[in-house]
């Protein structure tokens, strides 16, 4: 009996255990809008990481920072992530919502993630130029400011490298096509790696 228990214990110890749980908390860009489940950048990131880490994708299409701020505490409690990849704000900007509120909501989510013991990777976005230079500049400055204040990991622009290439977007001009997802994944992965080594 003792020998059998010892063998079972050794077998359990030999099973691969993810070094970290990563929570991706974003909007349609991370939920894979218009794509099959295995095509989005989050699925590609899980493939890149392999079994070493586990990704929980709690992203929701249409999510605003206000919705995210109210939803995040429960998600943190359930999944207990070591890293939170926070990709929200695009829908606030597209709706022309007050940027002070967006900043306050993102600040709340960063603080909640850190209080739960997670490292944060903040992912920024850009708005179409038709929103006007003052608003788009102020929108992007929100991410710069928060990343600096909280010393988070930081991806300034999820769609870096193809933001002005219309061929890389679906018909709506907002959501990247499947062929652009690997580039998005690599953009995130480059800034994620230092957090996984912390």
Tell me what the structure shows.
The chain has 198 residues and is an alpha/beta fold. The chain has one domain: Rossmann fold, CATH 3.40.50.1110. The protein has helices at 2-14, 28-31, 41-49, 65-79, 90-94, 99-115, 133-150, 181-197; strands at residues 20-26, 53-57, 83-87, 119-123, 153-155. The protein has a 5-stranded parallel β-sheet with strand order 2-1-3-4-5, sandwiched between helices. Helix 7 links the parallel strand 4 and strand 5 (153-155). Helix 3 packs across helix 8, helix 4 runs parallel beside helix 6 and helix 6 runs parallel beside helix 7 (133-150). The protein is globular and about 45 Å long. The termini are far apart. Mean pLDDT is 92; it is low at 12-16. Keywords: Signal. It holds the Pfam family Lipase_GDSL_2. Residues 1-19 form the signal peptide.
Outline of the structure:
This protein is of the alpha/beta class and 198 residues long.
Query: Rg, please?
Result: 18 Å
**Which overall shape is indicated by the principal axes computed on the Cα atoms?**
globular
Number of domains: 1
CATH C-level category:
Alpha Beta
SSE pattern:
HEHHEHEHHEHEH
Topology, element by element:
Blueprint: H1 2-14, E1 20-26, H2 28-31, H3 41-49, E2 53-57, H4 65-79, E3 83-87, H5 90-94, H6 99-115, E4 119-123, H7 133-150, E5 153-155, H8 181-197
Parallel strand pairs: 1-2, 1-3, 3-4, 4-5
Helix pairs in contact: 3-8, 4-6, 6-7
């Amino acid at each position: 009996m003792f020998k059998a228990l010892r063998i079972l214990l050794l077998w359990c110890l030999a099973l691969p255990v993810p070094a970290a749980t990563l929570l991706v908390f974003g909007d349609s860009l991370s939920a894979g809008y218009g794509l099959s489940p295995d095509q989005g950048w989050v699925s590609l990131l899980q493939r890149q990481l392999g079994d070493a880490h586990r990704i929980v994708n709690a992203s929701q299409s249409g999510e605003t920072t206000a919705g995210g701020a109210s939803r995040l505490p429960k998600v943190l409690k359930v999944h207990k992530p070591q890293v939170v990849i926070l990709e929200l704000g695009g829908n606030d900007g597209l709706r022309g919502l007050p940027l002070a509120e967006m900043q306050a909501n993102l600040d709340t989510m960063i603080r909640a993630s850190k209080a739960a013991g997670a490292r944060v990777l903040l992912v920024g976005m850009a708005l179409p130029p038709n929103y006007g230079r003052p608003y788009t500049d102020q929108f992007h400055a929100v991410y710069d400011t928060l990343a600096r204040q909280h010393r988070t990991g930081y991806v300034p622009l999820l769609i870096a490298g193809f933001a002005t290439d219309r061929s890389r977007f679906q018909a709506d001009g907002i959501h990247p096509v499947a062929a652009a997802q690997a580039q998005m994944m690599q953009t995130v992965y480059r800034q994620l790696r230092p957090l996984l080594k912390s």
